[in-house]
Every structure is written in C-alpha cells, then in structure tokens.
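Morning. Coffee machine broken again, so started the prediction first thing and wrote up yesterday's gels while waiting. Chain of 253 residues, entered below exactly as on the submission form.
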Amino acid sequence: MAKVISISNQKGGVGKTTTSLAISTGFKERGFRVLAVDMDPQANFTFSLGGEGDDGPTVYELLKGEVQPRFAIQRTSYVDLIASNIVLSGAELEFTAEGREYILKKALKSLMPRYDYIVIDTPPALSFLTVNALAAAQYMIIPMQADIFSLQGIAQLGDSLLRLKQYCNPQLEVGGILLCRFDGRTILGRRINETADMVAQQIGTKLYKQKIRNSVAIQEAQTNQVSMFQYAPQSPGVADYRKFVDELLKSGV
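Came back before lunch.
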C-alpha cells in the first residue's frame, strides 16, 4: 500500500517542485513504484518529468470525476504521472460541494495498492488544491529557502497545519522542514539553520539534517526534462538531494 507524501509550503520559490522531483526520481532509482501527482496549475512538475498536460486527461478531470483514476496516469521516462495544466487554476471556485477537501483522497484510493509511494507537488498557497493534497497525505515535507522571509512563512504555517490536522487529517505527520539553497559557510546561513530548528520545534516537527546547496545543474536538468541524478550526479546540490532521499528512507518514510 502506497505511502502518500505531500510537498507543501504556502510560499512560492522555495524548492517544492525540485524536492518533489528529487524524491520521486530518487525513490524510483531505488526500485520503488512511484506515482507523481501534480496539483499545481503551473504544471512545472509535469513539464520537468516530460509529461503532457494539454493532450490527455489531467488531475483536473480526475477531480471532476470525468476520468477513472487508472486512465489519468501517464507513463514518463522516470515515474508514472498524473499531470496538471492551467485549467486547474479555476478549481477553487468550481469545487464547492460539501466534502470537497477529500476529492483527491477518494480518487487515489484505488491506486494505492499499485504503488509504494505517491508524491504530490502543491501550489504556493494553502488553497483548495493544497488542502486536498494534505487531506490525502500521510506525510508532509516543507521545503524552505534559507532566508528570513521563508522563516516567517513557516511560523505562520503552524496555525494552519494545526487546524488542518484537527478538521481534515488527524493522521497527517509533518515529517520535517528541508532547507534549500543553503550556504553553511556564511554567518547568515548558520543563523537561519539555528532559527529554522527552533521554528520546526514550535510547529511540532523537525529540521532535516540534510541541507540542499544551490546548484545550477538542477535547474538545467529540469529545463532539459532529465532526472537530476542522471544529468549531474556529482553536482553538490544533486548529491545533497540523494542524501536527503536516504535520510527519508532511514526515518521510516
């Protein structure tokens, strides 16, 4: 039965999609059966995996019940994918019925036995789409950029998570905070690390031991729709993500 992991943060530009890619392809590389689900209308996850968001069913049709879950799946060079596109941006206004926060969870139920992991990339907001992802997930990973503004956003996220766990998904485990674009050589980097550790404790989670250094190679891999682990395995940032995947597996995720 699949373990469902949501990669979420209400702030944009913090590394959600890159982390989703690293976890998905990293697990696949280790022999696990992986389904990637793109819940972001920007569809960067879909693009980076080489998926097709404009020609064929997407997560939008899945949420509307217009396609059976197994027919929404695309086969990519790396993992199975339920794609997204810009049409999903209207979902907040379109889905208004009672229980709308559980639509994705119900849609994924029949797919759970087919996979070891389902990894969900979410938009940069605590919206209907993100709430659906978190209601369906067993684990939440919070990527954050190593700067003060991201820290403020994480602190604000704590109250939202408390309400979400209370009303939507009491079983949701906030696995931890992942520092991205981190430079431990600087005084600022070390201070951000210390403060992030305190903030993590305040919201009832932890700061992952592994940090992710900045890497142009990761961006190049995404642009070329190639797995970062194949494109530049010796890049510092890629090596960091490989160690992070190891840390997740050792933690029981």
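Residues 148-167 form the longest helix (20 residues). Going to sketch it on the whiteboard this afternoon.
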